[in-house]
Amino acid sequence: MVVMVVRYQQTPNAKDWNDLDWLKWVAGLISGLYHWAGTCKMGVATDTAAVVDTQLRVHGITGLRIADCSVMPIVVSTHPSASATMIGERCAYFIQGWSKYADPTLNPGLKSSASPAATASPAAAKK
User: Fold this and answer.
1) Which one from 35, 41, 65, 90 is the annotated catalytic residue?
2) 21-53 pLDDT tens trace
3) Do 20 and 80 reside in the same domain of the chain?
4) What range defines the domain where residue 38 resides?
5) Do residues 54 and 69 touch, judged by C-beta distance below 8 A?
6) Cβ(77)–Cβ(71) under 8 Å?
7) pLDDT: is 124 or 103 the higher one?
8) Residues 6 and 59 in one domain
9) What is the pTM of this model?
């Protein structure tokens, strides 16, 4: 059994405790931390369970996107901070309309199919 104690506390008469007493005492000291994921299913508009499309737009609500870990189908095995940052950055790219992964059929107003850095001319890159 692996137990993580998050704070120290004096234990009265601990020398007489059995395993169950220790388990109850430790259970009172620890707490869980949950990183929610998978609460906003990504899918096509015809899927009644889907909340967002592949560009994080909420179905049925114009101008609203969800850019957090709730769009991930499963929780990552590490802290979700980097994943949340990546999702936010991708959403910013979708909003700006220059993500190379954006689907132009879903976004007719798409400005470019590549990032501004990729579309810059070679002469501009040398300056």
Assistant:
1) 35
2) 878 877 777 766 667 788 899 999 999 999 999
3) no
4) 34-113
5) no
6) no
7) 103
8) no
9) 0.52
